[in-house]
Amino acid sequence: MEQSMAQRSRVDLEGLHGPEVRAMKGIQPPADMPFRIGNMGHAVLMVRDIDVSVRFYTQVLGFKVSDVYPDSMVEGRMVFMRFNRDHHGLGLVGQAREASGCRELHHLAFEVPAIDDVFRAREHLEKNGVAIDFHGRRRAGCQVSVEFRDPDGHSLEIFWGLDQVDWNGEARPPEEWTPKPSLEEVLDDAPPGQNTTLADPGLRRK
Fold it and tell me: Cβ distance 66 to 83 under 8 Å?
């Protein structure tokens, strides 16, 4: 179910400090865990037209194709795509029968190294005819982001500035989240410790 813009930007301090939230935040992994996950490696999406999707992820988001499985290996073909030195950070499988309804996967997020890149991404997406669902700062995590959809309706995010939390530390309190509904507004009101100074001030819109 789609959330309204008001719901997605609301900070319910009473609910956030309520017993159910406190109980869930108190759940800890076992002390004798024999391993620890270090990173999320890749995601694989089902798409309707794999040629259209490959063009979107290469031409609009700048990914590269590492390998392709033909129909003889995977029905509908499978494409492995990279955006760093990992062989693939995203896979595409051409077996979808309908557009994504975001029923199981809510969204995928891709990090950029500087806040300027989020502003450049917004402009680049618009120039390529991609509708922007949101740009600004969300709540928990305080990342600055631009949100949009791929040709199959998968919800995507390009972000910068996600809060870093020590393994045994505490996340930023919700009183400091400072959500904002536009990229321009995030520049003027940042949460403590987040430097939102643009290296290129000309990226800011009037």
Answer: no
For residue 198, what are the contacts with CB-CB under 8 A and spacing of at least 6?
115, 116, 119, 187, 204
Question: Contact 197/176 with Cβ under 8 angstroms?
Answer: no
Show contacts of 183-186: CB within 8 Å, 24+ apart.
183/118, 183/119, 183/122, 183/135, 183/136, 183/144, 183/146, 185/136, 185/137, 186/136, 186/137, 186/144
What are the residue boundaries of the structural domains of the chain, listed by start? 43-98, 100-206
Q: Which amino acid is at 24?
A: M
Report which secondary-structure segment, H or E, holds 111.
strand 108-111
Question: From first to last of its 206 residues, what are the pLDDT tens digits of the chain?
Answer: 455 556 667 888 999 999 999 999 899 898 988 878 788 889 999 999 999 999 999 999 999 999 999 999 999 999 999 999 999 999 999 998 888 887 788 899 999 999 999 999 999 999 999 999 999 999 999 999 999 999 999 999 999 999 999 988 999 999 999 999 999 999 999 999 999 999 999 999 98
**How far apart are alpha carbons 137 and 157 in whole angstroms?**
12
How much is the pTM? 0.88
- Domain 43-98 homologous superfamily, CATH: 2,3-Dihydroxybiphenyl 1,2-Dioxygenase, domain 1 (3.10.180.10)
